[in-house]
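Below is a filled-in request sheet from our internal design queue. Each sheet records the structural input a requester submitted and the sequence that came back. We keep these sheets so that new team members can see what a complete request looks like end to end.

REQUESTER: design group, bay 2
PRIORITY: normal
MODE: inverse folding
CHAIN LENGTH: 392
BACKBONE (tokenized):
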């Protein structure tokens, strides 16, 4: 079978969806390597793939309180951070594959070194978007330039249902919407639900913008203030906030740095999230109503779609107060029609196909007779070198 190389910047929201793809490809008999930061090696191995580690410019998961971006970034700092990562990763990943050039490269759409390597090696490529896809014809620093630019002729797997995609009508025929690519990982342990059957709410602000202790507190207090049954609140702080920083939360609240999110959502009746695409999709797959507190970049797009589709409510940061958050939580938990809308979304997600559909796109791109895609250079272990201009 083929050697498929997956490549991604070492960020949870980018690596995690590709793990499900890795596991599916391995199950189909392919040899899968996965080039990213060393922190993700245990998860990659759990998926059955071989980690290819490189030294990253992003902070590791043990850097508590240090995020790779400030919460008020408008996207420009993110572009600079991805360019810096591209330049650091390119020679390392090229060297790692010198004696083992893959048959095909699948890469996250902000992983700038990957298309450069695929084109230098003369092997087919497949893009993978874990969030809103770039519209067809998009150009600019956010999608690269020169030899490393994203191409409208390269298949792009979008790990979202089409109805959640912002301005889906502007994406092109090379985009395939496969929905969330789920994979039940075990690295974050287990979770035990409350024994008395109380309704459960999960509060998690993701892995990037998770230093807002005030938001964690207000969210937990808003749920505990609901009328009716006594709610049980699970707070997952991520590495941005130490659990002990949230001492004094209302009774019936448990606080952890990490939880097995899919397991908690299977029992949850409310999910308060920052709106990271992976978290939103896990909530929707479980049929859980959402309260989205977007903080940056694509979270605002996702929050808008959640609100428009009636799958929950969005509350932008400038509007978050103790009173407004209590009001939104009460509105979502009391909405009699939200269950039906969530059921329709779950049905759409199921139709998309997930990991199986993603693997089908990848296998269709594999050469069957040793040929290269049109216009590709002969297959070689050579890697691009030279100035930053040549890197795109």
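RETURNED SEQUENCE:
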């Amino acid at each position: 079978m083929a050697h498929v190389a997956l490549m991604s910047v070492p960020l949870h929201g980018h690596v995690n969806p590709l793990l499900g793809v890795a596991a599916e490809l391995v199950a189909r008999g392919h040899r899968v390597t996965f080039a990213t930061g060393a922190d993700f090696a245990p998860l990659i191995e759990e998926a059955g793939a071989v980690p290819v580690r490189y030294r990253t410019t992003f902070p590791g998961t043990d850097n508590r309180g240090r995020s790779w971006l400030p919460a008020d970034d408008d996207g420009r700092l993110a572009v600079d951070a991805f360019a810096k990562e591209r330049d650091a990763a390119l020679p390392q990943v090229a060297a790692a594959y010198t004696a083992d050039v893959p048959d095909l490269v699948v890469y996250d759409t902000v992983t700038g070194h990957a298309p450069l390597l695929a084109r230098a090696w003369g092997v087919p490529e497949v893009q993978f978007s874990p969030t809103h896809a770039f519209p067809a014809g998009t150009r600019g620093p956010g999608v690269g330039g020169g030899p490393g630019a994203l191409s409208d002729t390269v298949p792009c797997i979008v790990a979202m249902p089409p109805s959640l995609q912002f301005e889906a009508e502007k994406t092109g025929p090379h985009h395939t919407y496969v929905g969330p690519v789920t994979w039940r990982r075990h690295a974050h342990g287990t979770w035990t639900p409350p024994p008395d059957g109380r309704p459960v709410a999960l509060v998690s602000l993701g892995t990037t913008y998770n230093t807002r202790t005030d938001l964690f507190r207000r969210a937990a207090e808003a749920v505990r203030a609901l009328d009716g049954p006594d709610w049980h609140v699970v707070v997952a702080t991520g590495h941005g906030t130490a659990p002990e920083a949230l001492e004094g939360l209302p009774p019936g609240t448990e606080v952890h740095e990490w939880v097995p999110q899919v397991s908690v959502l299977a029992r949850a009746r409310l999910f308060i999230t920052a709106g990271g695409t992976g978290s939103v999709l896990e909530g929707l797959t479980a049929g859980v109503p959402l309260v989205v507190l977007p903080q940056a970049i694509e979270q605002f797009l996702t929050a808008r779609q959640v609100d428009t589709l009636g799958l929950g409510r969005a509350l932008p940061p400038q509007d978050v107060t103790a009173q407004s958050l209590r009001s939104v939580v009460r509105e979502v938990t009391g909405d009699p029609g939200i269950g039906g809308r969530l059921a329709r979304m779950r049905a759409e997600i199921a139709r998309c196909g997930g990991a199986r559909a993603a693997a089908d796109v990848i296998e269709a791109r594999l050469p069957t007779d040793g040929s290269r895609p049109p216009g590709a250079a002969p297959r070689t272990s050579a890697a691009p070198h030279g100035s930053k201009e040549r890197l795109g």
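SHEET NOTES:
- The chain has twelve helices and 13 strands.
- The domain at 3-179+353-391 is CATH 3.40.50.2000 (Rossmann fold).
FILED BY: M.R.
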